[in-house]
Amino acid sequence: MALMTGDEKHGPAATSTLDALWVLYDRVLRVDPERLDDPERDRFLLSKGHGPMAYYAVLAAKGFLPVEWLPGFGSYDSPLGHHPDRVLVPGAEIGSGSLGHGLPIAVGTALGLRAQGRPGPAVWVLIGDAELDEGSNHEAIAFAGPAGLDRLHTIVIDNSSASHARPGGIAARFEAAGWSAETVDGRNHEALHAAFTAPHPGRPRVVVARVEPKNAPAPVQT
User: Does the residue 23 lie in any domain?
Assistant: First the structure.
């Protein structure tokens, strides 16, 4: 991430996602640069596309894009914009950054794979807690539970940036709609991995990853 020195407007949005993204790409997702078009690949959708530095850094570390692209982040002729563009960024499934779009798209992706008779691919979407201020996400949550979309997985990065409190917490909102839900320390790699891989037959899964509040400094990684 330190290679990206452009005019970044959403630093906390990037650093808040780093650990969850790394665990997901390093230990969970069944996708790699050699099979970007494999219909049996897992799909990862970055809904929290504002401040995508961590996403680009992980993609580069895993060989999806050249490390040499990183220093040009955000420049006029760089494929690495302030919001990811699926046409320009290898491995990006969607263009993102507008709040409230990713989870509904993930629900549609999971439904599409079911309709195609493909039970293998998992669909993952990473959203921010502030995206739960958007009604489109609540419609998606309300639909996915009763539909039994058990190949759908949502990661909510909770950095205390939402405008509206959730009675009982974020996980309770999903549980009320029939989801399997767990809240973990968003900086603890083992806790993240265990939550990402926990069984949830017949139900979509959400992992709420709590990190430091938006305006607090991120902890130093060792």
Answer: yes
What does the DSSP assignment read for 110-177? HHHHHHTT--S--EEEEEEGGGGGSHHHHHHHHHHHHHT-TTEEEEEEE-S--SS--TT-HHHHHHHT
Q: Are 121 and 44 in contact (CB under 8 A)?
A: no
CATH of the domain at 104: 3.40.50.970
**Residues 12/178, Cβ–Cβ less than 8 Å:** no
Burial (Cβ within 10 Å: 0-12, 13-18, ≥19) of residue 119: exposed
Q: Is the dihedral of CA 30, 36, 37, 43 positive or negative?
A: positive
Q: CA–CA separation, 54 vs 98, rounded Å? A: 17
Asked whether residue 216 is assigned to any structural domain, the reply reads no
Instruction: Give φ, ψ of 208 to 5 degrees.
Output: -90, 115
Question: Total domain count for the chain?
Answer: 1
Q: How far is CA 67 from CA 63, 93, 203, in A?
A: 8, 20, 38
**Domain assignment present for 4:** no
182-211 pLDDT, tens digit each: 999 999 999 999 999 999 999 999 999 999
Q: Within a domain: residue 92?
A: yes
Residue range of the domain that includes 206: 11-32+39-210
pTM, two decimal places: 0.91
Structure tokens at 178: 């029939």
Distance (Å, whole) CA 124 – CA 89: 18
Q: What is the pLDDT of residues 78-104, one digit of tens each?
A: 999 989 999 999 999 999 877 789 999
